[in-house]
Design brief:
heterodimer; A: 110 residues; Glutaredoxin; 4-stranded mixed beta sheet; 4 helices; 4 strands; B: 567 residues; alpha/beta; 9-stranded mixed beta sheet; elongated
Chain lengths: 110, 567
């Protein structure tokens, strides 16, 4: 565990991350304005930052309550980042763009 | 017209806790939420679960337990320790336990949101088993998990309205706050019924109390009421609603000491009365109490004996030494000896404990030996005992307390006396180099009782009451009584012997005179016989003379009557 090797490892990880695949799941309740806003904003962010390396699933918990229960979804909309680990949970209609990027670990300046 | 002005009383749903239903007049408000608040470990979750378990078991109503804190396995294990078999209720479709994991601090918030996820989850659960009862334990987790308090508050308002619309009876638990009922002010949302649980430690003794802070549209008891959690759940022990309205029994129950029964006007104590046995140390209080208990067992009645100073085995041994064998009764569980160290509980817990045991066992006779175990002899204890006596009377239980004499003599003692129906006083009397026991009835309501002191003798064959020496001179007990009785007996013998000899003299004289009479009669008979012989001889001479005369007359040929001429 000498200093140089860990630093290079870290830099390698950073490079890898830029190539990492994202698996996202958005839980909404019906096609309410809030749901639609969240879906629209998430698509924008994905296209802008994760083009070609993301997978997004939108779940209407009205139709699939058991999936919501599995993930302990209390608030809606809720966005789960399943990959890369660790799982990240972001609630709200994603109106705060900056917080979404920070939450997803996508640097806003990228 | 049809709906206006119809003043129907508020419908209530039984809580599954008998004492609590007494306080609320029937249970929780039906179809509305009830807030249960209290500190950590005060029994909020148990209160909630008992509502669901009794609903499922006793009323066939399905319920949801929505837990934000404990995982399902923990809930099931905790309930099992209270004797509740939750998995079987779940299998029967009468219970659904749902654990919602809310990971605090792991939630990012970006924008506006609602708690629809919770609504949908709860709604789906309610629909799945047709639940009419819901427990949410505890909603406050949301406040720590979600940063936007404005959203949480708005959503809670919506949640409670939604629950009301669905018509489910709901219990919501919340942590006690500083200076407010709940930490996050949940009482603002749940305004129909608020119950506060309190778990205090006073003088190093834990005491649980419950208070109904609010019950909209219903009369309720507002006092703090003790409760306890034991091996089968939550028990509330209302005392405030009590009045002296129990039926007075005319049935008598034996004290186990025939002579004492006789002193009480025959038959013993009244059933469902309260008896106090006061006495100096070693005067035989426990012996009297045990005799009473054994007599009840012999009648086939369930007896609870609260022994605060002796262990069951010690009590058993000591009673065996005076010929009171109670082992059979203990084996048959007719006699249950509850031995606890008095300091183990607070007053309320003692009260709760005793009542619970009585209700569970169906005991008809309770012995509390001694009541001095309930701590200092103050008014708090007197109040507790008054309540205990009343509660036991209502249940038709005959109760015997023992106490040290000096306790019965101050102000609090006066109050105790007022609640006691029959007071036996035991004393040891020092006299003539020995210590003897005496028993007096100080009072016995409703009986024409003896006013005499009896000597109370404990032998290896049990208890006996003996008349004290009440002849000429002082009242005597013990060997003095025996000596005096012996002397009296000797005197009596002497007097009896003198009378006997006089009686015998009469007999002898009578016999002598009788003998004389017989002799005289015999002499008389002999004399009469002699005289008769003489008489007969005289008569025969007379007839000879007459015959001779005739012969002579005939010979002379005398001319006589025809009578003589025929010859």
């Amino acid at each position: 565990m000498n200093e140089p090797s860990s630093t290079t490892g870290f830099e390698a990880a950073l490079r890898d991350r830029a190539q990492q695949a994202y698996v996202l799941r958005l839980y909404v309740v019906g096609l309410t304005p809030a749901s639609q806003r969240a879906i629209m904003r998430l698509r924008e962010i994905c296209e802008q930052h994760l083009a070609g390396r993301y997978q997004l699933e939108v779940i209407d918990i009205h139709l699939q309550p058991e999936l919501a229960a599995e993930a302990d979804i209390i608030a809606t909309p809720t966005l789960l980042r399943l990959l890369p680990e660790p799982v990240v949970r972001i609630v709200g209609d994603l109106a705060d763009n900056h917080r979404v990027l920070v939450g997803l670990d996508l640097r806003p300046d990228e | 017209m049809s709906t206006m002005g119809s003043a129907t009383p508020l419908a209530k749903q039984p809580s599954g806790i008998a004492g609590l239903d007494d306080l609320t007049g029937g249970g929780y408000p039906q179809g509305r939420p009830t807030l249960v608040c209290g500190g950590a470990g005060c029994g909020k979750s148990i209160l909630g679960m008992q509502f669901l378990v009794s609903g499922a078991r006793d009323h066939g109503e399905a319920g949801i337990f929505l837990s934000f804190e404990e995982p399902v396995d923990d809930i099931v294990a905790n309930a099992a320790s209270l004797g509740w078999d939750l998995p079987s209720l779940v299998d029967a479709g009468k219970l659904l336990i749902d654990h919602v994991v809310v990971e605090r601090n792991l939630i990012e918030e970006a924008g506006d949101y609602s708690l629809d996820g919770l609504f949908i989850r709860l709604g789906a659960a309610i629909d799945r088993i047709g639940a009419t009862r819901v427990v949410i334990d505890t909603l406050e987790v949301l406040f720590s998990a979600l940063a936007n308090e404005a959203v949480v508050r708005a959503e809670l308002t919506r949640l409670f309205r939604w629950l009301k619309d669905r018509g489910v009876t709901c219990i919501v638990t919340a942590e006690r706050g500083d200076g407010s009922l709940t930490r996050h002010g949940l009482e603002e949302y749940v305004s129909d019924c608020v119950i506060l649980l309190d778990h205090r430690v006073i003088d190093e003794i834990s005491t649980r109390r419950l208070r109904i802070v609010k019950y909209r549209g219903s009369a309720h008891v507002t006092d703090e009421t003790p409760f306890m959690i034991d091996r089968d759940g939550f028990h509330v022990l209302p005392a405030s609603s009590l009045r002296l309205e129990h039926e007075a029994s005319t049935e008598r129950v034996s004290s186990g000491i025939p002579r004492l029964d006789a002193m009480l006007g025959g038959g013993g104590f009244y059933r469902a009365s309260s008896i106090l046995v006061s006495g100096t140390p070693g005067s035989g209080k426990t012996t009297i109490a045990a005799s009473f208990a054994a007599a009840a067992c012999a009648r086939g009645e369930q007896v609870l004996y609260f022994a605060f100073e002796e262990s069951p085995s010690q009590l058993r041994r000591n009673l065996a030494s005076i010929g009171l064998g109670v082992q059979d009764y203990i084996d048959a569980e007719t006699l249950r000896v509850m031995a606890t160290r008095p300091a183990a509980h607070g007053l309320e817990t003692h009260l709760a404990h005793i009542l619970h045991e009585v209700d569970e066992s169906g005991a008809k006779v309770v012995v509390v030996d001694p009541m001095s175990a309930f701590g200092a002899n103050d008014l708090a204890r007197a109040n507790m005992l008054t309540r205990l006596v009343d509660l036991l009377k209502v249940r038709g239980v005959t109760t015997m307390f023992t106490t040290l004499t000096n306790e019965a003599q101050n102000e609090a003692g006066t109050q105790i006396s007022s609640m006691i129906d029959c007071w036996l006083s035991l004393e040891t009397i020092d006299f003539n180099g020995e210590r003897n026991r005496s028993l007096t009835i100080i009072k016995a309501r409703g009986t024409g009782h003896s006013n005499q002191i009896r000597e109370f003798v404990i032998t290896s064959n049990g208890v006996e009451l003996v008349d004290v020496y009440t002849g000429v001179g002082p009242v005597l007990m013990g060997t003095a009584r025996l000596a005096r009785q012996a002397a009296d007996a000797a005197e009596a013998t002497t007097r009896a012997e003198a009378m006997d000899s006089l009686r015998r003299a009469i007999e002898r004289r009578t016999a002598a005179v009788d003998a004389q009479i017989l002799t005289l009669r015999a002499e008389l008979a002999a004399e009469i016989e002699a005289i008769e012989v003489e008489l007969r001889r005289a008569e025969s001479v007379e007839s000879q003379l007459a015959a001779d005369q005739e012969v002579r007359t005939s010979a002379r040929g005398a001319d006589t009557s025809a009578d003589g001429g025929s010859r």
